[in-house]
Each structure stands twice: as structure tokens, then as C-alpha cells.
Design a protein that fits this description.
Shape: elongated
Order of helices and strands: HHHHHHHHHHHHHHHHHH
Number of helices: 18
Low-confidence stretches: 1-61, 121-133, 194-201, 233-240
Radius of gyration: 30 Å
Helix content: 55-70%
Oligomer: single chain
Number of strands: 0
Largest sheet: none
Strand content: under 5%
């Protein structure tokens, strides 16, 4: 009698049987691939990409998840939970529709299987620094108060001194505030926490930020005097003198570093919780979008209160439009950069800085013979809304574009892939 394992279906297709394994079935592809034990010894060369070739065609067709795991081997090995794999797959273009081809309802379900099938000696190691996370987070949030405190001390010292000591105090204050902001952007919630490459245009974003901050201090006064005929002299022949400084917006933005750090922290924590509870990429995006808009509005409310307080204390007009537009632009640019999207912040900051520089240059260029028409748009804008309308319009338009971009990029799972802080 002939048993099922030695029937005629196995003879011609498999060739002569091996003498040391006479009773082995020749068609293992019929078994369910998910019941196969993991790991199975892989004899492919190290440079193999995991695509089925030649004799491995049957195995790839029977176990497509294993082929996908081989393609993303580094991602699967370093992941400490399935969410990292899900975010990495989404970053590589794997969508819920793609996961359906692997017999899964969404990317998160596919990532859970891939994570479960990774060989491990024991439980996944805890992420370094998890025990000290609450105290470390509190210190980093408190770090956001440093730029505002140093800026307030510098403004107070400059108002209490005269002559050369005032210049020294102002220069020291500017240097201290710049260093404090740099520390906040490196170690606080606004820092680049993910292991993503630095953008190729990061220095350009830094230069644009310096220009925007300098314009907030000097630009409105210079533009107002320039439109009136200065700064060298007025049309009636009287001396115009130095143009006024607007200190209140700069102080408000420095104090707003703390609310910005809180907003970034709330957004990161909330997005992480929604990532854990989501069952699909579209569901995650729909739940994170209100969170992003809510934290953005919360920051704007805090900045509005700080602008009003600084204007009242310094006895200066509260330039709400320009300050809020610049603060919104800086926050959105930093959130995008902190989550690995560097190009859009560079473009947004550069466009705003270029618009402000063009407005200033057009007023002075109009003094050349035959170039009076260059200053007509800026003169009309300043005459109707004041000098502060120029930064409000430039920064506001750039902030709106970044907000639209952020609602698309920061609602992706790959933007919130957990990773260790950089050393």
C-alpha cells in the first residue's frame, strides 16, 4: 500500500529522494506560514534583499511577512515595541492598504506580528533613562524659563545704565539670551529628540531666525523713520536722530520659550498616547490633528498674555499682530524640525525674512532717481496699518503655510517614532 506521503504527486516534481531523509513531504508550502516556528535558519547571502528568487520563490509566496521582515531587518531588531515598527513601515511608504496584502487590517496589526516574530533572548530591554524620565522632563521644561529671565534682566540693566555701560549690558544680554535659547533647543522638549539626520539647510534656518528676531527689535522703528524720510534727516531739514527700538516683542518672545516648551511636550506626549491606542494610520491622523491645533492655539493664548504684559510694563504699544505671527512661525518651524522635517522650516523662515528685507530695501531704493514706484506698496501699507503690518503680513503668511504643512506631516505615525535623546 502506498501512503499519502509517498504518492505519485511527489515523485516527478521533486526528483530523487534524499537517502538520509526518505519520508519527508515535498510540499511544505501548503502549511500556514504563521504557524511556522521563528526563527528559521536563513542560508541566503548577506547582501540578499529578501526578494524571492529561484528556489526561494515558494517560500516568499507562502510567508510574505518574513520577506518584509528581511527587508526591514534593522528596524525589527532595534525596535523596543511594535509602535516603532509601525512608524518605520509608514515612513517607508507602507499604508493600511499595503498591509491588507499581507492579510492584516492595518499597519499596526502587521507591526505587531513582525515584532512578535523577532527572535529575542528575553523580554525587550527598557529604554535607557525611563526611570529618570519625570525628573528629567521637569528640568527640561524649567530650562524654558531661562531665556525669558535673562532677557528681562538684560532689559532692566539696559534701562538702568547710560552710555557705554548700557552698550556692554545690552551686548552681554544678547549673548546670554542666544546661548540660553540654544540650550533650550538642544535639550528641552523643542530639541531634536529623534535619531534623524540634520537638515542640509539648518544653518540657513538659524540665520533667518536671527534676522527675524533682529527685525522685531529694530525693524519697525527703522521702517517708520525711513518712510518719513530718515534716518539721516527729515524732509524739512531737521535731524531724525536714532530710530526707536521695540523691546516688548522681543521680551515677550523670550518669555514665550517656556509656553512653547510646554506646548511641544503636551503634543509629543499626546501623540504618543494616540499612537498606542490607534488601529490605523487614518485613525491616528484624525486623532492627532485636533491635538496639534489645540496646542498651537494654547501657545498663541499664552503669547498674547505675555505680549500685553510686556507692553504694559515697558510702556510700549503691544504689537500683537507682528509678535503673534512671528511666535507662531517660530513654533511651527521648530516642531517640524524637531520631528525630522527640515526643509519646510527653512523655506518658511527664509520667505518671511526675505519679505521683511525686501520691504526695507524698497523704501531706501525708492530714493534713487526714477525709482519712486518701488516704495509705493510699502508706503501704502505703512500709512494705513503702521510699520508693524509688514512683519505681521510676512510672518503670518509663512506661518499659515507651515501650519497647513504641519497638519499633514506631524499627523503621520513616522513623525512620532520613539527614539532615544541624542547625547
Amino acid at each position: 500500500m502506498t501512503g499519502p506521503a509517498t504518492g505519485p504527486a511527489t515523485g516527478p516534481a521533486t526528483g530523487p529522494a534524499r537517502p538520509d531523509d526518505p519520508g519527508t513531504p515535498a510540499a511544505p508550502a501548503a502549511t500556514d506560514a504563521r504557524t511556522q516556528p521563528w526563527p528559521r535558519e536563513d542560508t541566503r547571502p548577506a547582501g540578499d534583499t529578501g526578494r524571492p528568487r529561484g528556489g526561494s520563490l515558494h517560500r516568499g509566496a507562502a510567508d510574505p511577512v518574513k520577506v518584509l521582515m528581511h527587508r526591514h531587518q534593522a528596524l525589527c531588531e532595534r525596535a523596543v515595541d511594535p509602535l516603532e515598527i509601525a512608524a518605520g513601515l509608514e515612513a517607508h511608504g507602507v499604508s493600511d492598504r499595503t498591509a491588507a496584502r499581507f492579510r492584516h487590517r492595518d499597519v499596526f496589526s502587521l507591526a505587531e506580528e513582525m515584532y512578535a516574530r523577532v527572535p529575542r533572548d528575553g523580554d525587550a530591554p527598557a529604554r535607557p533613562g525611563t526611570a529618570a524620565a519625570p525628573s528629567t522632563g521637569a528640568r527640561r521644561l524649567a530650562l524654558g524659563l531661562l531665556p525669558g529671565a535673562l532677557c528681562a534682566a538684560a532689559v532692566t540693566g539696559a534701562r538702568l545704565t547710560e552710555g557705554r555701560p548700557r552698550l556692554l549690558v545690552a551686548a552681554a544680554g544678547v549673548l546670554a539670551v542666544v546661548l540660553a535659547v540654544h540650550a533650550v533647543l538642544r535639550r528641552g522638549p523643542l530639541g531634536i529628540r529623534r535619531t534623524v539626520p540634520r537638515g542640509p539647510h539648518t544653518p540657513g534656518a538659524r540665520r533667518s531666525t536671527y534676522w527675524l528676531a533682529a527685525y522685531a527689535l529694530l525693524g519697525d522703528g527703522l521702517l517708520g523713520v525711513a518712510v518719513a524720510g530718515g534716518p539721516d534727516g527729515l524732509p524739512d531739514g531737521t535731524a531724525a536722530g536714532p530710530w526707536p527700538l521695540t523691546v516688548a516683542p522681543v521680551l515677550a518672545l523670550a518669555l514665550a520659550c517656556a509656553p512653547a516648551a510646554v506646548a511641544a511636550h503636551l503634543f509629543a506626549v499626546g501623540a504618543r498616547r494616540r499612537l498606542e491606542a490607534s488601529h490605523g494610520l487614518e485613525e491616528f491622523a484624525a486623532s492627532v490633528r485636533p491635538l496639534l491645533l489645540g496646542t498651537f492655539v494654547l501657545f498663541l493664548c499664552a503669547l498674547t498674555a505675555l505680549t500685553a504684559a510686556c507692553g504694559a510694563v515697558l510702556h510700549e504699544p503691544a504689537a500683537y499682530a507682528g509678535t503673534l505671527a512671528l511666535g507662531a512661525l517660530l513654533l511651527l518651524a521648530r516642531l517640524l524640525a524637531a520631528h525630522g522635517f527640515h526643509h519646510a522650516p527653512v523655506v518658511g523662515l527664509g520667505v518671511a525674512a526675505g519679505a521683511e528685507a525686501t520691504a526695507q530695501a524698497s523704501v531706501f531704493a525708492a530714493r534713487l532717481p526714477g525709482c519712486d514706484a518701488l516704495a509705493v506698496p510699502v508706503d501704502a501699507l505703512v500709512a494705513r496699518f503702521g510699520p508693524g503690518s509688514v512683519p505681521a503680513l510676512a510672518c503670518g503668511a509663512a506661518a499659515c503655510l507651515l501650519l497647513v504643512h504641519a497638519t499633514r506631516r506631524l499627523t503621520r505615525a513616522s513623525a512620532h517614532a520613539p527614539a532615544e535623546d541624542p547625547p
